[in-house]
Amino acid sequence: MSTDALANPDLTAIFDAVEFRDAYRISYITNAILVPSYDAIKRDFGLIRAEYLLLLCLAHYPVLSAKDVAKMTRRPRNSISRAVHRMLAVGYIQRAPDPDDGRQAKLTITPDGRTLHTQIAEVLRARQQTVFEPLNDSERTALDALLTKLAVHASTLDT
Amino acid sequence: MSTDALANPDLTAIFDAVEFRDAYRISYITNAILVPSYDAIKRDFGLIRAEYLLLLCLAHYPVLSAKDVAKMTRRPRNSISRAVHRMLAVGYIQRAPDPDDGRQAKLTITPDGRTLHTQIAEVLRARQQTVFEPLNDSERTALDALLTKLAVHASTLDT
DNA sequence: CAGAACATGTTCCATTTGGAACAATACTGC
DNA sequence: GCAGTATTGTTCCAAATGGAACATGTTCTG
Questions:
Q1: What percentage of chain B's residues is helix, strand, coil (to nearest 5)?
Q2: Which residues of B fall within a CB distance of 8 Å from A31?
């Protein structure tokens, strides 16, 4: 086996060279969690990303509109619209017209949907554990505080 | 205007309720950086995600194979293959056969490609700055150390 | 060395995605 | 109240995506 640069470049050197250092790291870590998780969710439960995001949102709010889900997940409205129709068809969510606004509909999760969400959340929780394994308790506490601050700030951007 | 839950639910409440707390936060922050950035990159420079990721990798290594880029970016090989062909066609990268291995090709960035990368990196750097704005210097230092540790660990997973 | 197993990159094709136009409803300013 | 504007959700269509099979080349095993 040859040992020149092409054969085995150090593929982590970019961590120190990239122009947007922390954005690159954050994105890399996100991919390490989500790519294998979403592969497993599609394989084991047959849900695509927008469908699971919809279920996730509804699992944590009593009622939401499709617009709310689109805003929370930063996905286009039509992707959410399709996910709503598929999740309705398989009985994981329910929809009722909003008496106060004829444009919107009130979406809620069903017991079946909640059961599925619980199983899927476990996939993500387990993968999170694997990726976060090197951090000790105080590091986790510190990271959590920093991420919370950033996430809350990010939620105010692009209204 | 009505003030019931559907009208204006607090869309950040999920931050505290979600089963994979830090994974959710990290993913949310990543989206807040990358979604607007990639929209701008497509609009202003006409590059899709795999194409820019290819350019980004080649901007930081003298030579890489398509396989290396796929591994670094966790994208399927065929997406990278397509990106290589398009970036070759527009002159942002070059390709040479690897004399040591007939299956691989050595990819390098061209001066034009590097110029474009510099412009695109600035888009991402600026958006990173916006999202990270609430952190002070010591918080940034702490976050950087934690993210580095996680990213290096993640790079060893799923070899 | 021959054959099997593996690695790399490409093509094919079905699925997923998202922009744009649209229909229906609600809001705004006069 | 009415005309114009904005919002919500849907449909249409073109583009992006990724799994699987394939072609070519390399490595392993006996």
A1: 65, 5, 30
A2: 73-74
Given an 8 Å threshold on Cβ–Cβ distance, is A14 in contact with B143? Answer: no
Q: Is the CB of A6 under 7 A from strand D?
A: no
Average pLDDT, chain A: 92
- Residue range A30-54, pLDDT digits in tens: 999 999 999 999 999 999 999 999 9
From the CA of B104, how many Å to the C1' of D24?
11
Structure confidence by residue, pLDDT tens digits, B93-148: 999 999 999 999 999 999 999 999 999 999 999 999 999 999 999 999 999 999 99
What does the DSSP assignment read for B25-79?
HHHHHHHHHHHHHHHHHHHHH---HHHHHHHHHHHTSS-B-HHHHHHHHT--HHH
A35 backbone dihedrals φ, ψ, rounded to 5°: -60, -55
Q: Which CATH number fits domain B14-127: 3.40.50.300, 1.10.10.10, 3.90.1010.10, 3.40.50.2300?
A: 1.10.10.10
Question: Is A93 in contact with A55 (CB distance < 8 Å)?
Answer: yes
Cβ-contact B11, A69 below 8 angstroms: no
Neighbours of A141 (CB within 10 A): 11
**Multiple choice CATH, A48-123, 3.10.310.10, 3.40.50.300, 1.10.10.10, 3.40.390.10:** 1.10.10.10
To the nearest 10 degrees (0 to 180), the angle between helices A137-154 and B137-154 is: 110
Could you state, in order of their start, the residue ranges of all structural domains in chain A?
Answer: 12-46, 48-123
Give contacts of B6 with chain A, Cβ < 8 Å.
63-65, 98, 100, 104, 106
